[in-house]
Each structure stands twice: as C-alpha cells, then as structure tokens.
Specification:
There is one protein chain. With 88 residues, the chain is mainly alpha-helical. It has helices spanning 2-5, 25-34, 47-55, 72-82. The N and C termini lie far apart (39 Å).
Length: 88
C-alpha cells in the first residue's frame, strides 16, 4: 500500500483471466478501496463470457462458481448445492 499511497501506479495482471474473478485479486482491490485509493479496471477477454455467448443458452441470468473444490467430497457437495440454481 505504501507505493499506492505515494501516488505510484501498480498493475494486477493475471494469466488466468480477469484479475479479481475467481482469484484472490479482490483482496487487493478491497484494500485499495478501504484506503480511498482509486482502482481502474481494464476489461479483458474472459472465456466464460465467450462460451456463454456462443452456447445459445439463456444469458440473462447465469451462475459462475469459479474453481470447484479439488477433493471429490467437497466437489460433489458444491455441485449438489448448485443443482437447483436458477439460470444457465
């Protein structure tokens, strides 16, 4: 936070899609906001939106859960909890 408070600029870059989505980037963003440091977002390409757009499925409401738990039990519980989710 020191460099940001001094007025310097930093960038959060990810090779796994948009930073802050399905990663811990949101913690840095929240911390900056808590310190009244402006955050600028530059949108990029995300595979999930491209896939949804090309799927032909309804896109007015959809569910994105990010990465599922790595262990089978946790993954099955998460999938079961989503079984009745409304939307694509």
């Amino acid at each position: 936070m020191g460099l940001l408070k001094e007025g310097k600029s930093i960038a959060l870059v990810s090779d796994a899609g948009t930073p802050g989505i399905s990663d811990r980037g949101y913690t840095l963003i929240k911390l900056a906001q808590d310190h009244n440091i402006p955050v600028v977002v530059i949108p990029g390409v995300t595979a999930v939106i491209t896939a949804l757009t090309l799927s032909g499925l309804p896109s007015h409401r959809f569910v994105f859960e990010g990465f599922l738990p790595p262990k089978t039990v946790g993954r099955c519980k998460k999938l079961e909890s989503l079984k009745n989710a409304e939307g694509t």
